[in-house]
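Data availability (excerpt). The following record was deposited with the supplementary files.
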Amino acid sequence: MMALPSTPEIHRKCTRILGPCLIALGVLSIAANVLLLFPSWTWSYVKEGRITKQAMQVPGVWGGGIIMFLSIVLSGLALLGSTACFILSGVGLTNGPLCLYNQTEVPKWDYPFSLSLRAQNYLYDPSLWNSVCIEPPNIVAWNIYFFSILLVISVVEMVLASLQIINGFFGCLCGLCEGK
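Predicted structure:
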């Protein structure tokens, strides 16, 4: 009959898997958020302050990245950070990008998709993506892609951080019992 692995053995194996996964997701989250700051691969929009508020809050850097790296020690804070990244990315996706668009006569920098004048949801109408925003080029798709990536990454991070908290809790509990 095959023996089942002991709880400390399971804890060690789980820790070996969770750590590298969280590090990889942290790096991806930072990269996705940094790319949100440079639409169409130019830095002029950052310099001019023409970047979405949620992208400028860099949730992928501090919430999904740096705090995730500290998750080994601060798993609870990692869960909070990934949750914040999820919420801010969702708000960024809902509000749409900050862009130059035609508002009657004079082009204006604003969030045209978050204004109450737009009853339709821009996420489901790709024809609006390039017809509303004049500048930066392709900013709507850019925001959708990278905020969506941040949403997916933050969900995975929340699950892994929760597993790490549970794993740490049982590891501590079983580690205390192991010597008895």
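Summary of structural features: Residues 9-178 form one domain.
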